Predict the structure.
Amino acid sequence: MTSSFSNLSLAEPLARAVAEMGYESMTPIQAQAIPVVLTGQDVMGAAQTGTGKTAAFSLPLLQRLLKHENSSTSPARHPVRALVLLPTRELADQVAQQIALYAKYTKLRSTVVFGGMDMKPQTLELKKGVEVLVATPGRLLDHIEAKNAVLNQVEYVVLDEADRMLDIGFLPDLQRILSYLPKQRTTLLFSATFSPEIKRLASSYLQNPITIEVARPNETASTVEQRFYSANDDDKRRAIHQVLKTRGIKQAFIFVNSKLGCARLARSLEREGLKTAALHGDKSQDERLKALEAFKKGEVDLLVCTDVAARGLDIKDVPAVFNFDVPFNAEDYVHRIGRTGRAGASGLAVTLVSGSDARLVADIEKLIKKKIELEAVEYDEDQPRGRINDGRRAWREAGETGDGRDALGAAPRRERERDYRGGREGREPRDQHRGFRPAPVSRDPFFEKPYEPSSAEAAPAWEAAAKSPTRSGISANIKPKRKVAALFKAVQPETSTQ
Ligand code: AMP
């Protein structure tokens, strides 16, 4: 369902800003949520990133705040009226930029605070007074403790990507922040999925919320072709090479479950001739931005990332997503593959399943309510087994480590799990960011542009890599079947359960 913004009777400054953004019609979440938020009711919205949910909550919120707009220079006349909480710095920055665009013809002020940056410039902005404050929880608590942010006049609070905030472990911080807010307020909660934890959070902090679901929770986009290939750890990189080649895919995200595995896999793929960058929580803000920028420019073909690191990226329509590791949390599967097949574009999501992943795959099956068929990859003769183009050094490093690591050098599952669950990725312990170099994020044009595939005509690196002389053979674990290309032709893309 889409409809025109003109049906909304938005105030002229907001309507003008929307027109300038070039939006022709509302997205489904906007069509459903904006009228409800305009009435001041609490909302529990199931919507993934990329659905237009930022405008869905910020336009009506700004409209309702217009009664407070004034040109006074006195900070006291610009108390925080709306608080938008997000799990990651990148996401906070993107949302703040969008809000600033929607509010540009109003006198309402907005700013963003997140960790990894010097607190001083943020403090100055807060002290000047802002009506809309976008924040990540850890840094906001810093500012509350330093008395830079006073929240006793907040009328609206938005918990965006709430499931992710809980995953990261922000619940105690959220509870503290919410305790500073007036009881009389409107609360909007957005989450990609409605897990029991999210429902508990909603029942504690929302009052008679209207539930809005644009795609049913836990549903995957029908435009994403989902494939599950059986591949043991030794063969996973080879499977990636094969699928990239067979499908002619130029760029992809590769998801792994741990920071350690992320760095290792990126290094291995790079050694094998693929232009690869790693994106995980231990990378500085600067390094993350550089990796993303390189991906957007087409200088990098593969972005190997952990769930949390990828969460905040406004990168849409990536041609393919690989799950190198089956995610521990089935909901992460939905998030991961949501990177591809957006906005009607078709996408490919490939999950590489090893023998020990049966339970995780069953969890995904249950969540997405689709039967998962495991397929075999049949490799071209020129696709080498195991480690590729890497000669004896790689085999020595990875083959028989004797320390329980697999042939990719990835840590055993128990270790990976610990890294993931106990990990601080995306989390903002307040003293963790002291070492980050401040990056001029709010002025970084990177986040202002959606992802566009590189216009470079050059053949992707793996094609060159595949042409180079390598050892060949079929994995002993895979029974020769049809060629991958034949498999893809033979099977229609799956459709989602509508
Ligand atoms: P979001 O899900 O809020 O992160 O939005 C995803 C992207 O969709 C952003 O780049 C928005 O600028 C864009 N967008 C939001 N609403 C619309 C709309 N009605 N029409 C076209 N693009 C939109």
Remarks:
- Residues 23, 26-27, 30, 49-55, 450 surround adenosine monophosphate (CB under 6 Å).
